[in-house]
Every structure is written in C-alpha cells, then in structure tokens.
C-alpha cells in the first residue's frame, strides 16, 4: 500500500521509458516516508525525558547489542548493492547469492530487534510504561515494520527474478528495492545515533 | 487468542469485538438521517438492478483507470458528501437559531457530533474530493499527456478515499462519530475521555482517505515533472498545472505528518501508549503542533488549485494573456514555502511565549503579500480585456470579494494580541468559511462549469448556473456576516445553546436564513445538472473549444477520448492552442503520423484494495482483532497479484482514433 511503483512495465510500453518515471515517483515516495520518520524522531525528542518514574534510555539500552544490529543492517545494505551490480552484469547466480544473504541479514536484524522488544516487555518496560517508551517502541518499531515489508518485497521480487528472468522491468524493480533498503539504512543510522548513542551517554 | 487482544487486555467479544446490536439504535433525529441514507442507497441499488446497469457500472466506471473517469467518480462522491455536510449545516443553524435559553432540538452530545462530522466531511470528502476530481479531469490533458504517471495507483487512491467516505458515513448508522471537533484534540480524544468508537471512526476514515491523498500527491507530482508534452518547459506550463505542482509539494510534505499523528493517537487509544495522554509522560500540546503542521498546509493544498482554476478562467473569458505569469509562479512558490511556517497561529493562546507568537504572527502577515499579488494579477488580466461574464467569471467575481474579506479578517487575527480576543470565537468560524467557501468552493465550482463540456461533451445551462451563483453568494454573505458580529460580541464556536439575555438570537436567525439561501443555491445547481443532461443535445459542444480556450485541453474533441490526444506534437509557447488559433504556425508543431496507442486495462484490484483497507479500519474501530490479519493479508496479496500481472495494457489501433 505504501509502494507507489506498483504500476507494471507493460508488455508493450518499452521499459526504458518507464524507468525514469518509476525512479522519480519512488524517490518522492521515499521523501514522504522520510517525513513520517521525521515526525517520529521529533516526537521522540519531545518525549525522551518523560519517563513517568520509569527507566530512561541509559538504564535500558546496551550498546554492544545495538552495534551488532547496526553492523548486520549495514552489511545487508552492502550485499543488496552487490546483488544489483551482479544483476546488471547478468550474473544470475551471484545475484541470487547476494540477495539471499541480504534477506538472511535482514531476518537476523529483525530477530534481534524482536528479542530486544521482548526483553523490555518481560521486564515490565513495555510501551505502556511511559511516554518515552511509547516513543521509543513506535520509532524503532516503525523502522522494523519497514524492514519486514522490505523482506516480503524481496521475497516476491526473488520469485519474479527466478521465474521470469532478468528482464529490464525486473531490473528496475530490483533497483527500487535497493533504494528502499539503503533508505532504511540511513534511517537506522539516525536511530542508532539519536536514540541509542545519545541515550546511553546522556 | 490474539496477540493484540492479550497485550491490550481488552475484554471484547472474540468474534464481534465491541460491536453489538445496540450500536445501531439511535434517537429520533439520527434515525431519520439513517433511514434517509439507507433509503437512498437502496434506491441506487434498486435502480441499478432494474435497469441492469451493474455490469455497466463495473466495467465502465468502477474498474476504469482513465483519469477522466476516476475524476468524475471523485466529483460524484464529493457532491453526495456536500449534501450530507449541508444536512449537518441545517441542523446546526436550526439548533443555534432556537437555542436561546432553550435546549433546542438536539442535545449537546449530538450537537458536538454534528459539527465534528460537518468539518471532517466538508474538508476530507468534499473539498479534497472535488480537488482531486478536477485535477484528474484536467491535469493530464493540460500537460498534453495521455495519462497520469501511475494509472493503477490513481485508482487505488480513489478507492482509499471511497473507503474513508464509507467509514465516516457508517459511523452514522453503526455507532457514532467523535464529539471532539474536526481535529480531535487530546486529551479529550483520548480513551479516558472518549471511550466510545466515535474518535476511532474519525481516525480511520481520514487516515485511509489521507493515505489515498498522499499517493495521489506522489502520482500527480511525478506526472507534472515527467509527463509534460515535448517543448512544454516548466515556465511554459499552464498556471493550473503550476498550482497543482505546488499543492502536491504540500501534500507530499504535509500528509505524512497527518498519517504519523493519527497513528500516534491510534496507538494511544488501542495499545495504551502515552503520546498525548494527560498522564504517563504524554504531551497533548505536541498533538496540537503536529496536527496543525499538517492542517495549515492543508488549507493551501485546497486553495492553490482553486487559484490555478481562476488563472485559467480569467484569461479565457477576458480574451487576454494571464497578467504577470512569472510573478504568479513566484507567488505560488512563496505561498507554498510560507504555509509551512505559520501553523502556530492556530494556537497563539497555547502559551508558547511572546517571541514565538510574534514570529508566527509576522509570517502570517507576510503570506498575505503573495496572495495579494495574485489577486492584483487577476484583476489586471481583466483590465482592458473583452470580458465575458459567464458563470465561471461570476464565481471569480464572487471569489475576489469574499476571499479578500476573509483575507483581511485573517490578517487581523494574525496579530497575536487580537487573536487572544477572537480565538475560538465565531469570528474565526466566519473567517475560515470565507476562505474555504469563498476561495476553495467557488473556485471548484468555476472549474467544474468551465471544464464540464470537455469531459461530458455538453455545456451546463447558463441561466440556472447564474441563479445558483446568486443564491450561493447572497446566502453565503447572509450566513457569515452575523457570525463575524457574534464573534466580536463574544460568542464562542461550538455552542449548543446560549443565554437569551445575550441578544444573540436574531443574528443566529439571520445566519440560518443565509444557510437556507445557500441550500436553495445548491438546489439550483442540481437542477442545472439535471436540466443540462435532459437538454444535452441543445447544449452540445461540437467544436471541442466552447469558450475560445487557450491551453492544450481545448485542442481535443469534446468529450475528450480515453487516450486524450491522438498525436502528441511538440509545443513552443505558453497558451499554445490560442497562439495556433491566432495564426502562429510555430506554436504547435505539425502533427506526427498517427500510431497505435497503449492504454491501461481496466482492473478491479483498486476496488479490492479499498475494500480490504476499509475493512481493516472497521476492524480496529470495533476491536474485531481476528479481522485485522485477514484484511491486511488481503491487501498484501492484492498488491503482489498486481505486481505479478504483466498484462496490464491494451492497444488502441491507429485506425480507430479520432484525429
């Protein structure tokens, strides 16, 4: 629903004509998503001290854990880029290998995030505890939701690439996917910095 | 057991959520409205069945990806919603006319629901619907393009708008709408103070419609940037297209804020979070900031296309080029930018401090400057022109008068110290109706009359249009001038009754008379439409250019064919069609040979996405948790199905084209 580029490259409209249109539209969509994250960051900034007597960022977050998450996600962004390069060179096997690695790293990231959330909830620090935790769960959770969406997209795309081949329309879709994936990386870097690093040090 | 169910600790029925049979039991007045609405729906269903039109409706309209058809559907829905919003007006005006020291005809709770529904419906389902409708009808043709950038997405946007519309109307039949005002400020809109389904209905109807608007914004922006006719540089673009571009920039940067804000309020209400709650570390003032960071640009999202319409209507009916094209473009850009830095003037009284208030007050005053530039440019376009006072021009003249009055009252309130007196008063209500009716609605009426023949192939009856205009204008002035006075006298907005000794009643009665005149005006508009359809042979537009137009859309036959243009010759000037008619042979290049054209297939998947998303909203409203994953999965499966469909276009052979 949030993917504007659902328009198909039609069998008869040449793909090169559609390429710049889809690219531009997708960039605009990414900017709208960026505004959504901006709102969530602003909300977090306003609420991050409103702990309502509960624990604050410094007591809850573990930097080594988050560093692992970050490295996994950054690596997945790198492998996604390599997947696109292989696809453009027509190297099918390498492309599938890189994309599979991207998917696994994405799953690992998501698994770590879910386990972090689970631990917080078990310790009684759920989103209902305070305004700060509401903002935290929503900001980080929205990013996680995007990662999950990206993984579903990657699955559908891999299926298409496998059964219909590296035709221009599919290459364009893959390029859009990698844009989305890099975008989530950039958002995560801001989360890492503002939520975790600044949270633990302040 | 459902996860959400466990986490929220709700005690709803596992199958029906909090939906019970009591939800559709209402008092006398609401029941009347419900019966009217259900009867209307049944009449439509019966009519379609008796005349065997279901197939026609499905194949020709509901599944169409033709932007002109989608536009007509937007406008049809918006007109029906206008009638619904007017019914709310009737009740509010009647209530306030009689409620001097008297409880009146509806109780306080219902009165609050009525003004909430009125504002929500008029902005999201009337003004936005008319706007996206007109953009769909006109923009691709004006750019000399055959379609929008993403035709399927366009259909999805419409069906999300439709799903939101269905939810806001369902609230009347099953349940209730919020009693919170059209922007549902917390903590009032939080679960603690509004435990019913009303606020949830409000959230989900505008959340879904809002996502539709956001997708439309992306679509039209891409269309303008990427699909203009060869030779049409940005500075040769028709002014309507410029206004849409600016409006869509606002959509793209403002609607995500609405999406995020409504999501946060939803999380508060359904997951027990503390964003805007009174306790637990919430901050209600943050909601007010966020919602107006969307809400103020929203006003300009609506009014800029209306400005664009007048920028087409005035030159055409004055027989002159638009005066000050470049200054119009810069004025639009300036308004677009400034509309992001004035949101705080909606709550000067919140206590942000003198410095902050001063900044936003000054910015608000500054925004009047580019708006003034536009008004003067239109007037200078008329100056020494051969002006034809057709119905669209009458709407323009009415607009200039009412909009300038509204603008002046706005600048008055931009002074924070004055605003402290007038905040939340009927003066404010009169001000923004002056802007939205006098600016937005009059503009859209002018545009509908102007472009009607291009879409349907016949003109609207002129005499009835004039009659409608005069009833609207006089009714509007009669309805809102008393509200300015009442506001000065200290009448706050949203009063369901007041003390008789205040001496306000006669002014409320005058306002009621004005509203009645507006209703008569709407009646004449409906009559005009019916009469024009009846007499369509006499009103037929055989030339494709009924008004001696200037831009590319008038170079097509009326009604414009599905593919818009048979050939796409390059243009070299502004107003290329006008220049070509004046004998400038370079204005439009010689037409290339006619070739086969591909257009998108019809598809019902947009309808499915709308239905699934609407169901999702309904499920959250009523806490029917099992339905959430079902409807979500249906949406995802539909999107994937569309992504895997490679056969989405069909060919219209060259020999079938109308050249």
Task: Write a structural description.
The complex is a heterodimer of chains A (202) and B (659). The N and C termini of chain A lie far apart (39 Å). Chain A is elongated and about 60 Å long. Mean pLDDT of chain A is 91; it is low at 1-12. The longest helix of chain A has 34 residues, at 131-164. In chain A, α3 runs antiparallel to α6 (168-201), α4 (92-122) runs antiparallel to α5 and α5 runs antiparallel to α6 (168-201). Chain A has 6 helices and no strands. Chain A is mainly alpha-helical. In chain B, α5 (108-142) runs parallel beside α14 (426-456) and α6 runs antiparallel to α7. Chain B starts with a helix and ends in a 7-residue tail after the last strand. By secondary structure, chain B is mainly alpha-helical. Chain B contains 19 helices and 2 strands. Chain B has helices at 3-8, 28-50, 54-62, 67-98, 108-142, 151-173, 198-226, 239-271, 284-318, 325-338, 354-382, 391-413, 416-422, 426-456, 462-488, 505-534, 576-581, 605-621, 627-643, and strands at 597-600, 649-652. The interface between A and B is large, with 49 and 60 residues.
Structural class of chain B: mainly alpha
Low-confidence stretches of chain A: 1-12
Can you count the beta strands of chain B?
2
The greatest inter-chain interface is formed by: A-B, 49 and 60 residues
Residue ranges of chain B: pLDDT <50 for 5 or more in a row?
A: 1-7
Order of helices and strands of chain A: HHHHHH
Fraction of residues in β-strands of chain B? under 5%
Distance between the termini of chain B: 63 Å
Tell me the radius of gyration of chain A.
Answer: 19 Å
Sheet bearing the most strands of chain A, described?
A: none
Annotation field: number of helices of chain A: 6
Share of residues in strands of chain A: under 5%
Radius of gyration of chain B: 25 Å
Number of helices of chain B: 19
Distance between the termini of chain A: 39 Å
- The helix content of chain A, as a percent range, equals over 70%
